[in-house]
Write a structure and sequence with these properties.
about 325 residues, alpha+beta, 9-stranded antiparallel β-sheet, 8-stranded antiparallel β-sheet, 17 strands, about 30% helix
Length: about 325
């Protein structure tokens, strides 16, 4: 249905089997894959900040008042794709679809300043093309054990009893169960003894605009012998990431490509750092892209049969923020 870049996945396997450290980026449809060994990162103008790996330089103080404006599409325009998604869910073609939009933003911050001053678990600035500040791990591999931490469900933290409300919200809960199930299946393709270690854990995400609570779970398994050391083969098997796609995967991808009507590119792809032994990788969300002189923020959320147009439209807008305090 779409052309995966087999050659690059094989290259990733070769490097990881030889225990050569490298950084990789894979776009949403696995068509474009970039691989950088440690020396190449320095020359590439790529800035990376992961929990245990950083290629960034000294950051300067931000001596200006941040200007930040977004220009979301109308609810009417959002509704067109939303209705295509809902129709497919009613027909039984999918039961969870991650529907995303592209919103024009204006800010007096450069992409590089956003990289240095935003707070997130995973941050990457790529030339003058994009920056992201993602809270979401894709998979971690440590000593032959693979783990994933699906994040699904957010709520404005200022609401009364927000964390409890989120935990008990029927729609968010159903979405979370679905994604946990989906990722358990995805891990099972490359691992044995897959189990859910932690379910519906609540995290606080601080942003300049508002604080959000997000719900995540933890799933792990032991890498199957035939995949041992083969990072590329494992990625090829598991992508696109279930949390930003939906289920069932193949059919849902068709629905997304039809309903969204824009190219996600690297947004909702994955990138990762392999240190020669272990891997840490993330889903490229909370994503700002430069096209010509325009900046666009790409964001979205999961749609189920319980989704209401107004709520989903609001969630898409809630996510257009930069986590700078």
């Amino acid at each position: 249905m779409f052309s995966m870049n087999h050659q690059k996945f094989m290259e990733m396997d070769e490097l990881s089997l030889q225990k050569v450290p490298y950084f990789f980026m894979i776009d949403f449809l696995s068509e474009n894959i970039e691989i950088y060994t440690e020396n190449e990162i320095k020359k590439s103008g790529l800035l990376i900040e992961f929990q245990h790996f950083s290629s960034s330089k000294q950051k300067h103080a931000l001596n200006k008042k941040i200007e930040w404006k977004s220009f979301p599409e109308t609810q009417e325009s959002f509704k067109k794709g939303f209705e295509k998604v809902q129709k497919n869910i009613r027909l039984g073609n999918s039961y969870l679809v991650n529907y995303t939009r592209k919103t024009e933003i204006q800010t007096n911050l450069s992409l590089e300043e956003i990289f240095y001053h935003s707070n997130a678990k995973y941050k990457v600035f790529y030339k003058d093309f994009f920056v992201f500040f993602s809270p979401e791990t894709f998979v971690k591999i440590i000593d032959g054990q693979i783990s994933t931490y699906p994040m699904k469900g957010t709520i404005d933290a200022s609401l009364e009893n927000a964390a409890e409300v989120l935990k008990n919200d029927k729609k968010e809960k159903a979405e979370h169960y679905t994604v946990v199930d989906l990722l358990r299946n995805d891990l099972s393709m490359v691992a044995d003894d897959v189990k859910v270690d932690q379910f519906q854990h609540i995290d606080l995400i601080r942003t300049q605009q508002k604080d959000l609570y997000a719900m995540s779970s933890e799933i792990s398994g032991k890498i199957k012998p035939e995949f041992a050391g083969k990072i590329g083969s494992m990625m090829k098997k598991m992508l696109p990431a279930g949390s930003i796609l939906g289920a069932p995967k193949t059919k849902t991808l068709e629905i997304i490509l039809d309903a969204e009507g824009y190219d996600r590119g690297y947004y909702t792809g994955v990138c990762g750092w392999f240190d020669g032994e272990n891997l840490d990788s993330c889903v490229m969300i909370r994503f700002i892209e430069k096209q010509g002189d325009q900046l666009y923020f790409k964001s979205g959320g999961g749609i189920t049969h319980m989704s209401k147009l107004e709520d989903e439209y609001q969630e898409m807008k809630n996510k257009i923020y930069v986590p700078i305090h």
